[in-house]
Specification:
One of its GO terms (molecular function) is oxidoreductase activity, acting on single donors with incorporation of molecular oxygen, incorporation of two atoms of oxygen. There is one protein chain. The protein has a domain of 261 residues: Lipoxygenase-1, domain 5. It is built from 25 helices and nine strands. The strands form three sheets. A five-stranded antiparallel β-sheet has the order 3-4-7-8-9, sandwiched between helices. Strands 1-2 form a two-stranded antiparallel sheet. The protein has a two-stranded antiparallel ribbon with strand order 5-6. A hairpin with a 7-residue loop joins strand 1 and strand 2. It is globular.
């Protein structure tokens, strides 16, 4: 057990020169400050290790606690702005920020957050002089060319702005199949189809009307953010904005309608930049290019349409960062961890299957609540802090576990799993990869849990009092409060699915929604976190928009916001280390002292090797070969939420 430093050990520290403690002169520039900060973090980390050694204080020996001890250690915090979470990370589970993040990227982020910019900080963000998209694109390209050999920054890795076609309909649409949020595009309901048809008739859009009438069934999909106001507790016509941190920012609740051709081309047809409760109260714009093969329209200069697409991606930034990424992986998985720690004994097979997928999640989430959300997300979002916290809490409480099992989720959104390899869906690489990964993980979990030693039949599951206690803890108002978690788990099938889901959230799902942020979001014009000018209130106003109107919506006069928008994705997209990927997990499982897990681990390792080849083929079949989709490649797939 972790113990206190003894008095005799403390005496050793007197008059001892502490290693790595060096007083540095005041930095003369940004790069010097950054270099010092990065070195400081590394020295601090070594300093902690040295103190543990000399004080005879063990921090890394695996500990085993009784169920009662775990219940006492893992207590819920139920009274702050966030959904239920761990009150205090136990010392034996606590991991410091420098151990989680790249020291250089973390130092860069802290300098930006604290406004410690020096004479050359302007290199990291554009200014008012970059007042055209062409100038912004050239500025982005120049930053990538000027990378130093020692200190790298957010421009070290490629971003979408290096593509000459980043603003086109094709690249815009493909982001909802292979971008950071590929999880919410949904078959358009009859209600939405009727609404857009009526609006097309009102605006005299004959080509759009003809397409509605001629297209095969199930050809129209939506990215629907129309429920933002309801979920945030705002009125249907309330203007969404955030005036904190010295920069007025606006949020929007966009809706985008897409046409998916039989050959898999996803094409945007219409956009509502900000849905305010009804079509009559909202602005709707239709794409001049009804046919994705139409080259008669100059997409680069179609500023009203480009502005509308920016609104969609800004809305998607909010949904992705606050819900799809933060809530649906980090916070939901934390609830699983705390409830399992409180109700499952260390020897329980479900606990043993889940624990390797937790690693640093609790410490990481504590940092997110104390720093990332209040100090980064709120200052760059277009929604007020009360709206943001209400949005997160509402999403957590209503997280629908069973409907989000991968096969059920894909089916409900209009992507039949038995048709994912058809031409129509070949560009939806996320769906194809994630479904295969779910099947593989479920096979692993099933082979362990169905063994006669654990759950030979449904009765053995129904009679497991710890599983029932786990369910109760997840649902209880004094626990996680997730009422959509099963009231009870009474069959082997149900238990296999739920354990698979918990691993899925921590590993492939988090990987899919986290590690693409740097590429798609460090070039701020592609996906700004907010708009920096009011939204248009009529279609006539929007149709008059020029390039200057779109530029005014970007944070060219708000450097801190721009830098945070670009830096945070870079901080969070560090390459997955070999010892953290799912291939290494399978290798470790294959040598587990439990022969049942070891056997399943060996099969998992073989299955992952096969999946790696399948995923390469899926990426090679994309129409867009400029940006491969390899985020779920097993060697790049994090085994846990590690960043």
């Amino acid at each position: 057990m972790v113990h206190n430093i003894s008095l005799s050990s403390r005496k050793v520290l007197h008059n001892v020169h502490l290693p790595y403690m060096v007083q540095l002169p005041k930095p003369t520039g940004y790069n010097v400050a950054l270099k010092n900060a990065a070195e400081g973090y590394d020295k601090a980390r070594r300093m902690v290790a040295w103190l543990y050694d000399i004080a005879d204080y063990e921090s890394s020996i695996p500990q085993t606690f009784t169920l009662q001890q775990k219940t006492d250690k893992y207590t819920w915090e139920l009274s702050d702005n966030f959904p239920p979470h761990l009150a205090v990370v136990p010392p034996d589970q606590s991991v410091s920020a420098p151990s989680i993040f790249s020291p250089v990227r973390l130092a860069q982020t802290l300098l930006i957050m604290s406004s410690l910019w020096y004479d050359d900080h302007t290199d990291l963000a554009p200014g008012p002089e970059q007042n055209t998209m062409q100038k912004l694109t050239e500025w982005n390209q120049e930053r990538h060319r000027d990378q130093g050999w020692l200190i790298k920054d957010m421009f070290n890795a490629p971003n979408i702005g290096l593509r000459n076609d980043w603003f086109t309909d094709e690249v815009f649409a493909q982001q909802f199949f292979t971008g950071p949020n590929s999880t919410t595009i949904t078959l358009a309901s009859d209600v939405w189809l009727t609404a857009f048809k009526n609006e097309a008739k009102a605006q005299g859009k004959d080509k759009v009307i003809a397409l509605f009438e001629s297209a095969p069934p199930n050809s129209f999909y939506v990215q629907d953010f129309s429920d933002f106001r309801r979920r945030m507790g705002a009125k249907p016509d309330e203007e969404l904005f955030n005036d904190s941190d010295g920069a007025m920012r606006y949020g929007c609740a966009a809706v985008a309608l897409f046409y998916l051709t039989a050959m898999g081309k996803l094409h945007p047809l219409a956009i509502i930049p900000d849905y305010k409760g009804s079509m009559a109260a909202s602005v709707t714009i239709f794409n001049k290019r009804t046919n994705p093969l139409d080259i008669s329209v100059n997409q680069a200069n179609d500023w009203p349409w480009r502005y509308a697409k920016t609104c969609v991606l800004s809305s998607d930034w909010a949904l992705h960062e606050m819900i799809i990424h933060l809530n649906n992986t980090h916070l939901v998985e934390e609830a699983v961890i705390v409830a399992a720690q409180r109700k499952l004994s260390p020897s329980h097979i479900v606990f043993r299957l889940l624990e390797p997928h937790w690693v640093v999640t609790l410490s990481l989430n504590a940092l997110a609540r104390s720093v990332l959300i209040p100090e980064v997300i709120v200052p760059i979002a277009g929604f007020s802090a009360p709206h943001i916290f209400q949005f997160i809490r509402e999403s957590f409480t209503n997280f629908d576990w069973k409907s989000l099992y991968v096969p059920a989720d894909l089916e409900s959104r209009g992507f039949p799993v038995d048709q994912l390899n058809s031409p129509k869906f070949h560009n939806y690489a996320y769906a194809r990869d994630i479904n295969d990964m779910w099947t593989t993980l479920k096979k692993f979990v099933s082979s362990v849990l169905r063994d006669a030693q654990y759950y030979p039949d449904d009765a053995s599951v129904a009679g497991d009092t710890q599983i029932q206690a786990w369910c109760d803890e997840m649902r209880s108002g004094m626990g996680a409060g997730m009422t959509n978690f099963p009231e009870s788990i009474t069959t082997v099938d149900d238990l296999v699915n739920m354990v698979t889901m918990c691993i899925h959230i921590a590993a492939p799902q988090h990987t899919a929604v986290n590690y693409l942020q740097q590429y798609y979001q460090t070039f701020v014009p592609n996906k700004p976190s907010a708009l920096f000018s009011p939204l248009p209130t009529s279609i006539a106003q929007l149709q008059k928009y020029t390039e200057s109107d779109l530029m005014a919506a970007l944070p060219l006069n708000a450097k801190r916001q721009w830098l945070l928008m670009a830096q945070i994705p870079y901080l969070l997209s560090m390459q997955v280390q070999e010892d953290e990927n799912i291939v290494t997990y399978a290798a470790n499982a294959s040598t587990d002292k439990d022969p049942i897990i070891a056997s399943a681990g060996r099969q998992l390792a073989a299955d992952l090797k096969k999946l790696a080849a399948v995923f390469l083929v899926n990426s090679a079949q994309l129409d867009d070969q400029n940006t491969p989709y390899d985020v779920l490649a097993p060697e790049q797939l994090a085994n846990a939420i590690v960043i």
